[in-house]
Every structure is written in C-alpha cells, then in structure tokens.
Design goal:
- The complex is a heterotrimer of chains A (394), B (538) and C (521).
- With 394 residues, chain A is α+β, with helices and mostly antiparallel strands.
- Helices cover 18% and strands 33% of the residues of chain A.
- Chain A has a 6-stranded mixed beta sheet with strand order 10-11-12-9-3-13. Chain A has a 6-stranded antiparallel beta barrel with strand order 14-17-16-15-18-19. Chain A has a 5-stranded antiparallel beta sheet with strand order 5-6-7-4-8, covered by helices on one side.
- In chain B, a hairpin with a 4-residue loop joins β13 and β14 (286-294).
- Chain B has helices spanning 13-24, 65-70, 102-112, 114-138, 150-166, 168-179, 182-187, 193-204, 216-224, 243-255, 298-303, 313-321, 361-372, 420-435, 441-444, 453-460, 512-524; strands spanning 3-9, 29-32, 45-48, 51-53, 80-82, 87-89, 95-97, 227-228, 231-232, 236-238, 259-261, 266-272, 275-281, 286-294, 328-335, 355-356, 381-385, 400-407, 445-451, 496-498.
- The longest helix of chain B has 25 residues, at 114-138.
- Chain B has 538 residues and is an alpha/beta fold.
- In chain B, α3 crosses α4 (114-138) and α8 (193-204) crosses α9.
- The radius of gyration of chain B is 22 Å and the shape is globular.
- Chain C has 521 residues and is α/β, with parallel strands linked by helices.
- Chain C is built from 16 helices and 20 strands.
- An 8-stranded mixed beta sheet of chain C has the order 8-7-6-16-17-18-15-19, with helices on both faces. Chain C has a 5-stranded parallel beta sheet with strand order 10-2-1-14-20, with helices on one face. Chain C has a 3-stranded antiparallel beta sheet with strand order 11-12-13.
- In chain C, a hairpin with a 5-residue loop joins β6 (90-93) and β7 (99-103).
- The chains are: A alpha+beta (394), B alpha/beta (538), C alpha/beta (521).
- At the B-C interface, α6, α12 and α13 of B face α5 and α12 of C.
C-alpha cells in the first residue's frame, strides 16, 4: 500500500507460471501488468493457436461488473447493438460511441444473470460508464484485478477442456457462457476469443489462477499446448479480421486532434449499429451519418507480395494518398499478406485496386516497393470449427 | 559619447533574450542592470556559503525550446534536467503522489478513486487540446483586433483558423476554459478532494485569485504549456540553478558582441520629440540609442522610468490600472541532509518532484481569503522542491537546497508595510507547516532566506513582487497584454519598446516576450530577424 | 389518447418566460396549452399572500428590464400591466444614518463631488457597454461554427456593435468584460456606500463575490434595461403577479389555454421525438412540440430523463453551474418602518445593505464554505408605500432579497432557517431601529424553499450562473444555446437559456420564434 514504493508494473495471478515458461524473457507493459510478448518462438506459439491449443493471459483486459434492476436497459442505451435478445448465459460483441457517434471502444458483454453483466474491453471506461449511468439504477464495479482470465484457443481446446472435466463443454455454442465448479470456487467459461478460431475464455478467482493454469497444461500435454505471447496473438487477430483499439482506431475519449476518431461505419462495424432500437448513445449522430455519408472507410486489403505493409501509405491510381495502413501481417495459415487500412471516401469499395507503399529492411538496407492491393470482404481465415457445435475437430 | 543601436533596461531573462536577438541581427546593444548580478528573477545565488539558491524562479519548462536551440544555449552551459514525482500530503497522514509513468499514476489515483483515475485521461486529453491551441501563439505577436493593417488581419485570420481547427465542441470548451475557475473545471472531472487540490495548484501559483475565482483555469494552462525535450507539460531543473538560464542567455548575447553593464540603475528614459534618445542612469550618466527596450514591468516602465509629460495620458491611466498583484513569497533553505516526510516511503521517487501540504480545495480557498484580508496565508499552499536530489552542483555532497514557493502573501499587510518581524513570522508559518509533515526538517535547517513580495519588489523590481509581471487574467492576455492597443511590444514613443513578461505571452521563464519583441524591433528597422516560430503539431 | 395532436404546442411551466412563449406561439396561430404545476401561474414572478391581508411579490420583486418589445407585441398595457412606481433610486444604507442615493446618473447624500462626478462618467460608459449587449437580447445566440446565414449575420452584428464603440471603448470593453467589479470600482471611487451598492448589483443572484472575475458582466446585465427606457427598477402595481397575469391574459386572448395544478411528470418521446407529455395524474396529452420553462437541469434530468439523452450532453447538463445563494424575506409590518437618516419620502426607494465592497466580499466568503453570511447583503423594497393594495390601510410589507444563503448549507436549512431569519431581522434592525416591534408576520424563503415552491434546481434565481462561461452561445452550455434540444420538438425557454434571468421575457420570445421558424410540429 502507500507505505511502500509501488512497483512500476504489477504481476498477473498467473505470473509464477508465465515467468517459468517465458524462456525469451520478452516482456511488455500491458495496462500496468508485466506480460510476455513471446515465450519461446512466436511462430510456434501462433501455430499452437491454429493447430492444437494455446494459452494467453488476458487478465489485464478491463472488466466491469454492471448490476442492478436497470443494468440491461443501461447497457442497451450505452452500446450501438440491440441487446434486446441477449439472454442470460450469452455473450455479445459490440461497440459504443460518444455523442458524436465516434467509437469509444469495442468489447464484449457477458450476461451472467438477469441483472448482472460483465463488460470487457481493452481500454478503461469507468468515467464514461458512470456518466452514462445518470438516471439509471445500476452499480458499476471495476473488477479487472478481481478476475483472472485466460484465453484458451485452438482446434483441440474443446477436447482438452472435456479431458479436464468440464463435462458438456462441447455443447457450448459460440458466444455462450457457462459456469463450472472449480476447486473451492467457480470457473466461468465462455466460447469467445480474439483469434477467429475455436476457443474459450476462462474466468476465475485470482486465488485459483495458478491451479487453472496447471490443470490446463496437464490436460493439454498430449496436444502440444503452448502459452502464447502478444506477438502471436497479433498475427492471429489480423488473420481473423479483428480490430484493436489504439491500433486500428483512436478511442474517441482519447482523441486530441479534431477528426482523428472514427464512427462504427468508418470502422466496418456498421453491422453492430442498430438504428431501429430505442435511444442509444450517439444514435442521432449515426442516423445523420447514415443519411449524409461517412468520411472514411475501413477496409481489409489483400496485398501482393509477402512484405507486411505496416504503417504504409495507400495511393489511388492517380498517385494520390487516400489512406494509411493501421495493422498488417503476413498470415501463415491463410497464406496471405493482409493489411487493415483507413481510406478516405469514396475509396475502398470491395474489389477496388490500390497501391501500397511498403518499406522493408534487409541487411541494414531499406527498400521500397509499390505493391498492388485489393479490397477484400470477410476474413481470410474463418474455419468451420469456429462455428460448429459440437466443434468438428480435435 | 558613444551611441548604441539599442539599450535594453534590465538583465532579466527576457531582456537578455531580446538583446541577444538584436545583437545577433548585428545591432550594437547594451543591457543595463541595476543589481550587481544579472538575471533578475532568473538567478542562482550563493547566500549561504557552498549552497546555491534559485532564489526566485526555481523550475524550468516554459523556456521556449525554439529559442534554446536557436541561440544555442546548451553551448553556453544550459542543461535542463527533467524531474519527476510530486506529492500532496494529507492531514490524515496519507498522501497523493504523482508518478511519471501512466500506469503507476493510474493506480495511485485509483487508490483514492478509480473513477478519478480514469477521468484523469479525459482531463489530460481535454487540457492537451487547449494547450495545443495556445502553444503556436507563444512565439507570435498578438494581432490588434481594432486594426485594419494587413498583418493584423492576417494574424487575426491565423487566430480564426486555429479556432476553426479546434472544431465546434472544443471551441465551446475553449471559451469556457479561458473564463472558468480551476475549481469548477476540476469539479467536472474529479470527486476526490486531494486530487483536485493537487492539480489546482497550477491554477493559482503566482496569481492573486482563489481556486474558485474565474480565470484560474487559464493560469493552469499557462503552467501546462511548457515542455522538456518535447514532453509537453513536463518540468525540469536548470543544472546549477535558474541562473544558468540567464548566464547562457548573457553568454549568447555577448558572443554576438553585446555589452552588459551591471549596477547601472536607470533613472529615466530620455525622450525627445522625435522619439527616445537614450537613458539616464541613477548616477547621472547618460547612454544614447535610438532604441530603448524596457524589460521592467509595465507599471515601472511607464510610471517610474518614463515621465508623464512624455507619454499620452491614456497609457498612464492604463499603467495605473494594470493588475500586478503580489501574491507569493519564497523561502530558500539550506539543509544539512534530506528530510523525511510522514507517510512517504524512504527513497520514494515522488520526492524529486513538487511537494505540497494542502489537501483540499476549501483549504486552498481559505488560503486566498487570508490574502484578501491583507495577511499571509496561515495555512499556505506551498510548491516545494529539493533540486539537489537531482542536481549535484547546488550544495555540498550530501547536503540539500530546498526551494519553497509560498502562495499567498500580500504585497502589503493590513497592518502596513512588511516589517522584519512580519517576515520572520511569515517564515515561521511556512516552516511550521512543513515541519508538521516532516519530523526531522527543522533540525536540518542551516540557513533560510525568507522573501516577502515586498522583498522581491525591492530587490528585483517586480512591482508588488508579482512573479508574472502582471496577472495572467483574460483582461491582460494576448492583445490585452499589457494594455489594449500596446500588445505589439511597441511603446507609445518612437523607438521605445517593451519586452518583459508583462507583454504577450506572459510570465514564467519563457523568453518568448523578449524574442517576440526583438522580432518587432528588427521589423521596424527593416532587418531580418532569426526569431523562430513554434514547432508545429506537438 | 387520440391519433391527432390535441395541441400544437404544450408549454411546461407558467413562469413569465413560459407565458411569453405561449403568447407569441398562440399569436402565430398555434394551438397552445400551458401546464403549470402549482395552483397559480407566475412561477418566480407571482404575488402571494404570505399573511392574511399582506401580499408581496413572492420571489423576484423589482422589474429591471421587462423588454419593451414584449410589452408592445403582447399589448401588456391593454391587459393590465401598470407600475406603482418606476425608475426608483437606490439608497445604500450606512451606519449612523449615513447613506447615498443613486438615481439615474446622479448620486447624492454623503458623497464627495468627485465621486458623484466619477459615477456620472462611469454610468454613461456602462450604459454604452450595455448597448452592445442589448443587441444580443433579441436574437438567439449565434452558433460559432457550422451556423446558418442568420447565425453568421448575428455574429457580424455583434462584432459591428463592438467595433462601433470606437477603438478606446472597444479595448475597454474587451478588458472590462472579464474583470471583477471590485477592481473597477477601486479604480474610480472612494465612497464605500456607493461601491457597496454597485457590488451588490453585480453579485445578486449569483455565486460570486465582487472580487470574482467577470462580475462586471453581471453588473452590465442588471442594467441592460437602462438602454430601453428603464431608469432604475420599477414596482408593478399589485406585485409581480400583475406582470404575469397581463402576459397570461394576452396569451389567452390569442387562444392559449392555461391549466394550473397540472404537474407534468414526463415529456414523452418516441425515437428522440416528442410525442406528448404525461401529467402526474397519469393523463397524457399528445403534441409534437413542447416548450419547457423549467430550468435546464430539471428539464433534462427529470422531464426528459437522462436515459433519453446522450452522455456528454447529460454531463453538460449536470455540470451547469447553478449554486443558489439567494433567500427571500417577507415582513408584514403594522406601520411604516423608519430607516435611520432616510427621509420618509425616500423610503420607497430600493434600499440596500451593502455598506462597502469588502463587506460584500466577506459575505460571499461564507457561501464558499456552505455557511450563510453572518453579515448578509440585502436588497429591500417596501412596495406598500407605492401600492396600497398590498397591505391593510396604514400597514406595510417589506420584501427583501438576501444573500448569501447557500442552497447546500452545511447544517441543512430545516435547522437553520429560523436562526437566519432572526439574524436578518437583527441586521435590518441596525438600520431601521424598532422594526422588530413592528413585525406582524414574517416569512423566509431559503433556496431550499424556493426549489420546492418553484421547482428551480438549487433555488437558483437565474437557472444557471450568469458568467462568461455560461453566457451567449455558452448558455446554458456549448452545443445547446439555440433553444432547440437534441429531443426533436423539445424547446427550452427558461432563464437558463440566453439571454438569462430577471423578469426580461426575452428567452420566452426568442424561444417561441425558434419554434415558429423550425415549424417542425
């Protein structure tokens, strides 16, 4: 507490296990926690995700418990998506906006029971959530450090969890959540993740964290289960087509320069906006945008060649800059060179061909290539096992 | 007798910066200074053998990096070292600390309120928007809104464009920000008193206003506009004390062939019908030049060293009405060792920052009530630093220097002028306050210099001891600084200019007024000036 | 409920601005219903009988600036608007019977020739500045950006008014606009009583002391009426209630319907559009346009409800600065009070207890710490001197506006109300010895009472501080200054919107014009 100098970085409840496994000693600061960017080999960690099972510590994700008689109405008014059909035991992915219809963040909402929800996101939002609660009977608790969480992703995860004793886990549908008794406490399992593959997220009391890790590693031993760091996850999420706050968009509340934030339509998240539902934050602005058109378009690009197009400018055929790349990677399973980009309207209709300026370094020499790229729809990686219940493979 | 191209009155940092730019453009310039040392309020003084005090200004952030670089001040010995930390001690034994890294700061705030910890991000973004708006104007001459000159119209358009770029929402906020009190502003973000009190300090330092007086939000902004190496809002120590800043400016000036004459108090500026002719010193000597630049505050300039007959009546009235309120005192203390503070862990990284002992907005406001009643605050707001934790050159090894800036202290007491007894009692108030949080502090004191606003005025010549050479309130900012109609550094008499902190963009060791003024002078002489503009998009 | 709207416009609240709005709307041919929660119309501008036979203006008690446009357009004189007294002087009471009388541009009494002369100059300059400000009264505040042609024109007009002042005065206005009244008066006057009275003008109704910056602005605001015919405060015959009754009569004759004892509980919306209002009784009235005369906080937080609004908008509503500090004292007197040194013929003036600037500032200090002033400032009017209808023959009523009495009093008002009332009577006794014995009945309305009687949040007289950060296009807050709200069809017409408080009526008129112009019923 205050009579000691607080450490610069905290450790997650899994730290003892992670520190042992992290042979590369490659650490980074994720929301004030010491977390690994890689354990042994990024490529092998990534392939564990796609081939068998990987464990990723997502304790630093921000988690708010929202409870009270108005909790459901409150969340429905907060986010762009219609939560009318979100039943207890279900999870949904959504975005939420400021008054100007600019995305504050995206994240997942877990409906634990009728009046109890968990909102999970990359950034912190207590200030926004509390201001949004004016006129609602809800209570909002930051539970980030009260819940230890692991993301368990890959084709073998269902089998491993079954082996671990989570009976009936195979019947859990995508975006379902359920609870199992675990040691002296309870384990919450949701069929969610950030890899676009079959996978689960496991939520547990911090006291039980190490046990959970050990049990997973034990049960997964036969399946080449590997802990993964953020670098491997980064490749997977780009392959799956998922956005990340701070990388692909500036969270609206953090915007300093006018015009840097984006609306859901401008981030390709229009499908999350349900203008027909009753009042929600930013609705009027979004209605207006729908009517008058957006400023930007967020696109996925299939880039020629194999050089990742990170931080690149994008040109139209008149050599005019029409946008920049926000995230990019060579994705090893789909075997594509993928980039996400924010383009000025009207550029970036599906099928449009543009040029991307890529710089790459070989033996201390920078080279520049102008590569063709095509606007694509949908994710380059979307396996059946992600959607099927029970999952179709091991 | 020799005639100079320009005479600059007062070797404070703005006078030296002004002179340096004039000399750099090839002018033959002399700076005259009444004291036997240069620097004005930007000095390092050895008042106790072996200890150097930055006995007026004490930290460095606002000094414009464009000027530092352009005059090559590092070559002349200027080193600004960033410091981190800062604490507000609470009466109940706790404290609120200020860590330089985002996450530890978040957790420190969250220890008091998670909501405030998160709101701090919105606060930072909002304040940053406002500082980004104001910073480009620091190195520009304010336009005259009543003028139709092309340059004024062009500058007004620049102003309008900057406004426009803010966007409608932020523009509305800007108008509010400039007119609000820091207390009301903070109330819109935070619920925890100690956090508000910690942040509010920047809104009242050097200012004769309380935390709930409108206009104090801007004063906070003024303290957030600076930077250390591109880290906006950061503060640093000048190695060797603040005297290093004026020393470097003086050396730069002299490297361009300039001349400095100390112990040369100006009695008055010589004015002839066609314009200024020079200055008459207190000893009767006369110095001649067609250009005279005053680095004295506007009141002293127009009411002391100029004669009423030489001036238009309106400016005399404006000078009389100019608000330059003494509100701060200063203690400089030589310490035998590093004091410890109740509740704060040993070797806490917070110690190198600014320490404060007022933990609530009410206590801050009451400190101001004392000032209004003509007495120093009985429970003062202090901004206290121990630079020797970072800078080894200011005291013998293992010993320390403490700089204690005190808000509020009136220029004149209700009982009349400050007496020696009053000064002692004022010092005791401050030392007792610190002592009540630091059990070993009093025993470590080897020497203490106590400076009331009256002392500051008498020694340095800042009217009422006002550290900004004029209140930083909206009625005295931008094209109103120092007075409407005279914000472009030109005086009412041909060849007479102003370059003090009493001109735009105001106080703090910024050197921008001096540099901007030099640009105007050189423009009038049709000479190219090298005064830089602000770096864009920071 | 039927499918068709029962009314084109429903006005919530029969305060003077609500009624003015209703009158203009009805006059334009719309079918208007005014709903008032209490049993009588008028809101903070009504006359009440606080003790049998004794009537007094319940809240606001002096007319400073009822705009002539409104008097003319609504033919208020035809509908019974009469003044019992106009262009009253102000007497600043000092100890031992010393006092000064400020009337128009002259000051007489215990004052030096120099100060009287300075005052003449001061006032003529202030009136000149008021002129600039007066031009803004008749328009909705322009948007700073993305505005319509009209917005750009009114910005230009305002700019032109400023420029027209001439270079020196323009510079002076730019300087003085944000400065505090204390310093301005120090620059000009020696007379303490004069300074005290002028300070009171600059702080009445606000959470400011004379040393608070931009109190000069509030001073200008109080005197804006002097640019259109007022030469001091006026007392309506029959109390303030007559003014609103005249407005109501005008509204009714244009076809507006008035219902009292009809408390609106909710403004009903569908998809961010107004569809009607629901009364406390459960009755629903269909309409597509609602004009709210409730203060902005009450309008949005309760009538609309924050859940129907966006978060940043709600945050701005929540952050409107409105710290009520003003109480109202009513005394029924069995005979005419005597103020030491003040001649009988002068007692009918506005009497103020604010003997010097520091006194006023010290009174304010308490409010900062949630205490009431131990030496409050007081504005007294004895309307029965001019208007025999207010009290039985030979008897009198004294009406006093009192500051500072913070709404958020530390100890709570239920405990402190009586003590404070006694303190006030003692204070007045100092200036009018014997008055305590003359008291037949008395009543103190604390900000808490004002809140519960009139529904104004924190009992704030102006529905939001009148300061630069809540002025013109920033009133009530940036993004909502043109009477329209984010709820389509809902308009706001209380003093919380531009141009602000006092019995001025322009908010109601400007708002009605905005409704008519939008035509989105």
């Amino acid at each position: 507490m205050s009579d000691q100098i607080p450490p610069r970085l905290m450790q997650t409840p899994f730290h003892s296990r992670i520190a042992t496994a992290c042979e590369l000693n490659q650490w980074e600061d994720w929301k004030g926690y010491t977390t690994p960017s890689a354990f042994t080999n990024v490529e092998l960690e990534y392939f564990a995700m796609r081939n068998s099972a990987s464990i990723f510590d997502l304790t630093p994700m921000t988690k708010y418990r929202i409870t009270g008689p108005d909790a459901h109405a409150y969340l429905d008014r907060l986010v762009t998506r219609n939560l009318g059909k979100l039943k207890p035991g279900r999870v949904t992915y959504t975005a939420w906006c400021n008054d100007a219809g600019q995305v504050i963040d995206d994240g997942t909402i877990f409906r634990i029971s009728r009046d109890s929800f968990i909102l999970c996101s990359q950034e912190r939002h207590l200030d926004w959530l509390e201001w949004s609660a004016l006129g609602f009977n809800v209570s909002i608790e930051d539970e980030t450090d009260r819940i230890a969480a692991l993301s368990f992703q890959g084709p073998s995860t269902c089998t491993i969890l079954k082996n671990m004793g989570l009976y009936g886990i195979e019947n859990l549908k995508p975006f379902d959540l359920t609870h199992y008794p675990f040691e002296q406490s309870e384990l919450m399992v949701s069929r969610t993740g950030f890899t676009g593959d079959l996978g689960y997220e496991l939520w547990v009391d911090p006291d039980q964290a190490e046990k959970l890790w050990d049990r997973l590693m034990d049960a997964g031993e036969q399946f080449d289960t590997k802990p993964a760091g953020s670098e491997a996850l980064q490749i997977a999420r780009i392959e799956a087509g998922f956005l990340q706050a701070g990388a692909d968009f500036v969270p609206a509340e953090q915007e300093v320069r006018a015009g840097r934030s984006r609306s859901p339509y401008e981030l390709g998240l229009g499908w999350l906006v349900h203008l027909k539902k009753s009042h929600f934050n930013g609705k009027q602005a979004l209605q207006l945008e729908k009517r008058k058109g957006s400023r930007y378009r967020f696109v996925k690009l299939d880039v020629a060649g194999n050089k990742p197009a990170e931080h690149s400018f994008i040109y139209n055929r008149h050599h005019k800059v029409v946008g920049t790349v926000t995230s990019a990677a060579w994705v090893p399973t789909a075997k594509r060179n993928v980039a996400f980009a924010s383009l000025e309207m009207p550029w970036g209709k599906p099928g449009d061909e543009l040029t991307v300026e890529i710089y790459y370094l070989r033996e201390l020499k920078w080279s520049r290539v102008m590569e063709k790229c095509t606007v694509i729809e949908g994710a380059v990686f979307d396996p059946e096992r992600r959607h099927a219940t029970p999952p179709t493979c091991q | 007798m020799k005639k100079y191209d320009a005479i600059v009155i007062g070797a404070g940092h703005n006078g030296l910066a002004n002179a340096a730019y004039l000399a750099k453009a090839g002018l033959d310039v002399i700076v005259v200074e009444k004291n036997e040392y240069i620097g004005g309020a930007t000095v390092s003084r050895e008042l106790h053998e072996g200890w150097k005090y930055s006995n007026c200004s004490y930290v460095c952030s606002l000094l414009r990096p464009e000027i530092t670089r352009d005059l090559n001040l590092p070559k002349f010995g200027l080193q600004v070292i960033p410091y981190v930390g800062g604490v507000t001690f609470k009466r109940d034994g706790g404290y609120f600390g200020n860590y330089e890294d985002h996450e530890r700061q978040y957790r420190e705030m969250a220890r008091h309120s998670k909501r405030d910890a998160n709101a701090y991000e919105r606060y930072t973004a909002d304040v940053t928007k406002q500082t980004r708006f104001i910073r480009p104007f620091l190195m520009r001459t304010p336009p005259d809104p009543t003028s139709f000159k092309p340059r004024d119209i062009r500058e007004m358009l620049f102003f309008a464009k900057s406004f426009y770029n803010l966007g409608e929402k932020v523009l509305g906020d800007a108008l509010r920000f400039w007119t609000m009190s820091i207390g009301d502003f903070l109330d819109e973000y935070f619920e925890t008193d100690v956090i508000k009190a910690h942040l509010a300090g920047s809104g009242i330092i050097g200012t004769a206003l309380g935390v709930y007086s409108p206009g104090t939000a801007y004063v906070l902004l003024h303290h957030y506009m600076g930077e250390v190496d591109g880290s906006v809002g950061a503060w640093g120590f000048a190695r060797g004390g603040m005297g290093s800043v004026s020393r470097a400016l003086a050396d730069a000036f002299q490297s361009f062939g300039g001349e400095i004459k100390t112990e040369a108090e100006v009695d008055h500026i010589l004015v002839k019908p066609r314009g200024v002719e020079g200055v008459v010193l207190a000893n009767g000597d006369e110095l001649y030049a067609d250009i005279v630049v005053s680095n004295l505050d506007p009141k002293r300039t127009f009411l002391n060293i100029m004669q009423e007959d030489d001036l238009p009546a309106s400016i005399v009235k404006q000078a009389r009405n100019f608000k330059i309120r003494g509100s701060s005192g200063k203690l400089n203390i030589a310490l035998d060792g590093l004091p410890t503070f109740r509740g704060l862990p040993q070797k806490s990284p917070l110690m190198t920052g600014d320490l404060h002992f007022i933990d609530s907005m009410e206590r801050m406001e009451r400190a101001y009530d004392d000032w209004k009643n003509g007495t120093w605050s009985q429970d003062p707001y202090v901004d206290m630093l121990i630079p020797t934790q970072v800078d080894p050159t200011m005291a013998p090894t293992g010993k320390h220097v403490m700089s204690v800036f005190v808000q509020y202290a009136p220029p004149k007491l209700a009982t009349g002028a400050w007496t020696d007894d009053d000064r002692e009692a004022f010092g005791k108030t401050v030392i007792d306050q610190i002592g009540s949080y630091s059990p070993d502090f009093k025993d470590l004191i080897l020497h203490a210099e106590i400076r009331t606003p009256q002392d500051i005025e008498n020694e340095i010549g800042l009217t009422e001891g006002n550290i900004f050479q004029g209140e930083l309130t909206f009625d005295q900012l931008l094209f109103n600084r120092p007075f409407p109609g005279y914000a472009q550094y030109r005086g009412p008499v041909n060849g007479m200019y102003m370059c003090s902190s009493g001109t735009h963009p105001g106080g703090g060791v910024m050197a921008a007024p001096g540099a901007n003024s030099a640009r105007e002078i050189l423009m009038d002489l049709n000479k190219p000036s090298s005064v830089p503009e602000a770096y864009p998009d920071d | 409920m039927t499918d068709t709207n029962q009314f084109d416009v429903v006005v919530i609240g029969a305060g003077h601005n609500g009624l003015v709005s209703a009158a203009y709307l009805a006059e334009s041919g719309l079918k208007v219903l005014v709903l008032e929660s209490s049993g009588t119309i008028g809101g903070a501008a009504r006359t009440c009988e606080f003790s049998e036979g004794y009537r007094v203006s319940e809240c606001a008690h002096l007319v400073y600036a009822l705009h002539p446009t409104i008097v003319r357009d609504l033919k208020l004189t035809n509908y019974g608007l009469r003044y019992a007294a106009t262009d009253l002087g102000t007497i600043s009471l000092g100890s031992d019977g010393l006092h000064v009388l400020i009337k128009g541009d002259s000051v007489s009494g215990d004052i030096s020739y120099e100060d009287a002369d300075s005052y003449r100059k001061f006032r003529s300059k202030m009136i000149k500045f008021c002129q600039v400000f007066a031009t803004t009264l008749e328009h909705q505040p322009p948007r700073l950006m993305n505005g319509s042609l009209g917005d750009k024109l009114s910005l230009l007009k305002l700019g032109w008014q400023v420029r027209k002042l001439g270079k020196t005065d323009m510079q002076e206005l730019l300087r003085i606009g944000s400065i505090n009244i204390y310093d301005v008066l120090e620059e000009r006057f020696d007379n303490q009583l004069l300074k005290g009275a002028l300070c009171l003008d600059a702080v009445l109704g606000s959470h400011t002391g004379p040393r608070s910056p931009n109190t000069v602005l509030a001073y200008l605001y109080r005197h804006v009426g002097e640019t259109f015919g007022f030469n001091g405060p006026s007392i309506p015959l029959g109390g303030m209630g007559t003014v609103v009754e005249a407005i109501a009569a005008s509204a009714k004759s244009s076809g507006a319907e008035l219902r009292t004892s009809s408390k609106v509980e909710k403004i009903l919306t569908e998809g961010s559009k107004v569809v009607g209002v629901r009364l406390e009784t459960g009755e629903e009235i269909k309409t597509h346009t609602v004009v709210s005369n409730a203060d902005p906080r009450a309008t949005f937080s309760s009538l609309v409800g924050y859940p129907q609004l966006d978060t940043e908008f709600s945050r701005r509503v929540h952050n409107i600065r409105m710290k009520g500090n003003t109480a109202k004292l009513h005394l029924a007197l069995d005979s005419r009070p005597r103020f030491t040194g003040v001649g009988e013929s002068e007692t009918g003036n506005r009497l103020v207890i604010a003997p010097d600037s520091d006194y006023v500032e010290r009174a304010f200090n308490h409010a900062k710490y949630k205490e009431y002033s131990d030496k409050p400032i007081v504005e007294i009017s004895i309307p029965s001197i001019h208007d025999s209808t207010l009290a039985p023959a030979g008897k009198h009523v004294l009406s006093a506006v009192v500051q500072y009495a913070p709404h958020n009093l530390q100890q709570g008002w239920s405990q402190a109300s009586d003590t404070f009332k006694n303190l006030l009577i003692d204070l007045i006794e100092d200036y009018a010895p014997g008055i305590r014995q003359q008291i037949v009945a008395s009543e103190l309305l604390t900000p808490a009472d004002i809140e519960s009687r009139f529904g104004t949040t924190n009992g704030h007289w102006h529905h939001g501080e009148l300061a630069l950060d809540q002025f013109l296009m920033l009133r009530p807050f940036p993004g909502m200054s043109q009477y329209a709200t984010p709820v389509h069809g809902l308009y706001h017409c209380s003093a919380g919107s531009h141009p602000g408080g006092n019995v001025l009526g322009m908010v109601g008129r400007n708002c009605a014009r905005a409704v008519i112009k939008r035509g989105d019923r």
